[in-house]
Design brief:
By secondary structure, the protein is mainly alpha-helical. Helix content is 79%, strand content 0%. It contains 2 helices and no strands.
Length: 107
C-alpha cells in the first residue's frame, strides 16, 4: 500500500514571506494599471496639443499665402485687361469709320 507523505507545515516566517510577495505582486499589478492609464491620458493630451499647434501654424501659413497670391493674381489680371484695352482701343472707332453698326450690318 502506498502511503502519502505530507509536506511539513510552513513556519511563520515562510508564511509572512509569501504574504509579502503576494502583496508586492498585487501592488505592482495595480501600479502598472494606473501607470498605463496615466500614460494614455498624457499621450492623448500631447496629441491634442500638437494637432492644435500644427493646425494654427498651417492656417497662418495658408492665410499668408492667400494674401500674397491674391495680390499677385489681381495685378496679373489688371495687366492683362490693360494690355487688351490698349490692343483694342481703336477697334470700335475703326468699325464705325468702316461702317459697321453694333448690330453687325452696314449702314
Amino acid at each position: 500500500m502506498h502511503t502519502r507523505t505530507t509536506r511539513p507545515a510552513r513556519t511563520h516566517t515562510q508564511r509572512m514571506s509569501r504574504y509579502r510577495g503576494y502583496c508586492g505582486r498585487v501592488y505592482v499589478f495595480s501600479y502598472h494599471k494606473v501607470r498605463s492609464a496615466a500614460c494614455v491620458r498624457v499621450q492623448s493630451y500631447w496629441r491634442g496639443y500638437s494637432a492644435r499647434k500644427w493646425t494654427t501654424e498651417f492656417r497662418a501659413t495658408c492665410l499668408a499665402a492667400v494674401a500674397i497670391l491674391q495680390l499677385t493674381i489681381s495685378k496679373f489680371l489688371l495687366r492683362q485687361r490693360l494690355a487688351f484695352a490698349a490692343k483694342h482701343r481703336g477697334a470700335a472707332t475703326l468699325m464705325q469709320q468702316v461702317g459697321w453698326s453694333s448690330a453687325g450690318v452696314m449702314f
